[in-house]
Structure to design on (266 residues):
């Protein structure tokens, strides 16, 4: 884990370009801003080349796409590839809705994604492994989560983050696990979307996207845990406000002190 990447984000203030969904757009923008990067959102295909040109990473969220937005996402992905900018995709609910899986796979066949970040239901779907996904949530299944994440990474030739109680990060062979976190993340819609775009901020400051993905997971989960530990009860509203403060104020030393992770070589 390279926690110094967090300091690099705060020093460099990289621009992270997002296609967001209307549900969580504000959390995503503020999350990126709070951690020390600079968010920009886009809804107009004509500005794609200029937008990708001024950005250091591109995060594509499939949470509420329409046909015109799919065309926009395609152009963003292809332009990011051409300009060598890292591409992160969040395949919201592809495990629960077959049409979403079809669109996500068609998109990923037309440009190369660097990191996919999803929950177990979403990543199992992209690995073609049986799982009972539930809407935007992970749902339930009995498969080996490490094997599922590795299968998805090998199929799509990229780094995969399978998030949940334990985050599993893999490039298809090597595996990292992050054990920090809090169940309160599940009570705040947008936690996953925020993490996906924060992965963009970390990919903006290194060319090692496996390292960026692991470190983003550790930073986000550890900050959530620190915030939750100070609450007096299960308070999703207070949690989300303090999470934003935590993203801004938490130091690498504070994260280091509570970090629980393992990195296993293949
Ligand atoms: N039960 C849990 N315990 C601790 N952390 C969790 C738990 N579930 C999710 N998280 C954390 O919540 C964040 C969002 O992940 P997740 O809930 O899997 O995404 P999504 O919102 O897309 O389903 C991640 O940082 C993950 O580590
Ligand atoms: C509720 C909802 N519906 C479409 S996108 C979305 C937000 C999903 O956010 P997250 O996966 O981060 O909880
Ligand atoms: Mg999600």
């Amino acid at each position: 884990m390279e926690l110094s990447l967090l300091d690099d984000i705060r020093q460099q203030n990289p621009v992270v370009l997002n296609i967001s969904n209307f549900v969580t757009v504000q959390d995503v923008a503020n999350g990126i801003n709070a951690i020390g990067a600079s968010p920009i959102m886009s809804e107009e295909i004509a500005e794609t080349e200029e937008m990708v040109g001024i950005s250091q990473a591109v995060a594509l969220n499939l949470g509420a796409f329409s046909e015109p937005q799919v065309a926009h996402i395609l152009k963003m992905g292809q332009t990011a590839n051409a300009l060598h900018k890292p591409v992160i995709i969040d395949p919201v609910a592809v495990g629960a809705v077959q049409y979403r899986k079809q669109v996500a796979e068609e998109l990923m066949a037309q440009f190369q994604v660097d990191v996919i970040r999803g929950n177990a239901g979403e990543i199992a779907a992209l690995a073609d492994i049986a799982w009972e996904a539930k809407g935007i949530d992970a749902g339930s299944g009995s498969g080996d989560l490490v094997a599922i994440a590795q299968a998805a990474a090998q199929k799509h030739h990229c780094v995969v983050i399978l998030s949940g109680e334990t985050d599993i990060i893999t490039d298809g062979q090597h595996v990292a696990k992050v054990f920090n976190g809090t169940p309160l993340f599940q009570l705040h819609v947008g936690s996953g979307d925020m993490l996906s775009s924060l992965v963009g901020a970390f990919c903006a400051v290194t060319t090692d996207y496996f390292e960026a993905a692991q470190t983003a997971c550790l930073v986000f989960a550890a900050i959530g845990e620190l915030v939750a530990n100070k609450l007096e009860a299960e308070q999703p509203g207070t949690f989300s406000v303090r999470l934003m403060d935590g993203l801004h104020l938490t130091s690498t030393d504070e994260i280091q002190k509570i970090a629980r992770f393992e990195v296993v070589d293949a």
About this structure: Residues 21, 23-24, 63-64, 92, 136, 189-193 surround TZP (ligand 2) (CB under 6 Å). The chain has a mean pLDDT of 97.
